[in-house]
UniProtKB/TrEMBL annotation:
The lineage of its organism: Bacteria, Pseudomonadati, Bacteroidota, Sphingobacteriia, Sphingobacteriales. Pfam families: PPK2. Belongs to the polyphosphate kinase 2 (PPK2) family. Class I subfamily. The keyword Kinase applies. Residues 24-51 form a coiled coil. InterPro entries: P-loop_NTPase, Polyphosphate_phosphotransfera, PPK2-rel_1, PPK2-related. Gene3D superfamilies: P-loop containing nucleotide triphosphate hydrolases (3.40.50.300). The keyword NAD does not apply. Residues 29-268 form the Polyphosphate kinase-2-related domain. This is Polyphosphate:AMP phosphotransferase.
Length: 292
């Protein structure tokens, strides 16, 4: 699976192009085999989560980005379902509040970072600030940024500075023990259409659909350009992107699970070894319990 993972991994955006990534790629996986495989991957990940918590030297931050109906919610549900909820927190970022707009764009994301020993999952992330704001720059006016009084003030240099802020933010986290995995679930426009229709036709899924989804779909090419540029500008060795084919959910979930498990394995996590005095205290406690 290592070669498959590397196929999705982007560590240098210099030659990156979304056109090189097939949204329907199965990477030779077979659907009938992935259900059992996924269960085993989740089991192994849960064991390493326990070691992550005990080791208490690293935090794992997993970011999910996708177009509407790209499968973020179901991917989080299926790939992290076996984890201990005490050591894992999921944040779904919506439109920023008034309080959040009174701070810099990274503030609310910094507040939601996982502690050492824990796993943090961000459903949408700080990348919305170079995605939706890139497609709809009028949203930037709500941030009350110095020198940005109209959309005409948002020039190329502004976006260069914002990508730079993100790179520095992630570099700082990585150098201080937060391991970052960035997933872009790459769904096709045709598959998005099918999923929207399913949400409309299925009463139990009506709540997932919004008329605004159709409006945003009209900006599909703009969003693809924004995603491509964001990945180009922020893919690094320490904080790579993974462009995951998302047309077939069973492929998406299996690939994500492999990547999370492999990332945890690379940390070489160890349970703390008690010093001699503490071991002696444990033995004494054991004797007391047996004789009580």
């Amino acid at each position: 699976m290592k070669s498959i993972i590397n196929k999705f991994k982007v560590t240098n955006g210099e030659k990156f192009s979304l056109k090189d990534y097939d949204t329907a790629d199965t990477v030779n996986l077979k659907k009938e085999e992935t259900e059992a495989e996924l269960k085993e991957l989740i089991k192994k990940t849960a064991a390493l989560q326990s070691a992550l918590y005990a080791d208490n030297r690293y935090a794992l931050l997993i970011l999910f980005q996708a177009m509407d109906a790209g499968g973020k919610d179901s991917a989080i549900d299926h790939t992290l379902s076996g984890l201990n909820p005490q050591g894992c927190e999921v944040y779904s970022f919506k439109q920023p509040s008034t309080e959040e707009l009174d701070h810099d764009f990274l503030w609310r994301h910094y507040k939601a970072l996982p502690e050492f020993g824990r796993i943090g999952v961000h459903n949408r992330s700080h990348y919305e600030n170079v995605l939706i704001t890139k497609v709809h720059p009028e949203l930037l006016l709500k941030e009350k940024l110095p020198g940005i009084n109209s959309v005409k003030d948002v020039k190329k240099k502004f976006w260069e500075h914002r990508y730079e802020s993100i790179r520095h933010f992630e570099k700082h986290l990585a150098e201080n023990g937060t391991i970052i995995i960035k997933f872009f679930l790459h769904v096709s426009k045709d598959e998005q259409k099918e999923r929207f229709l399913e949400r409309i036709d299925d009463k139990e899924k009506n709540w997932k659909f919004s008329a605004a989804d159709i409006y945003e779909r009209g900006f599909w090419n703009d969003y693809m350009n924004a995603y491509e540029e964001a990945i180009k500008q922020t893919a690094t060795e320490k904080c790579p992107w993974y462009v995951i084919p998302a047309d077939k959910k069973w492929v998406t979930r299996t690939a994500i699970s492999h990547i999370i498990l492999d990332t945890l394995k690379e940390l070489n996590l160890k349970y703390p070894v008690l010093p001699k005095e503490e071991k002696e205290k444990l033995e004494e406690a054991k004797k007391l319990l047996i004789n009580s």
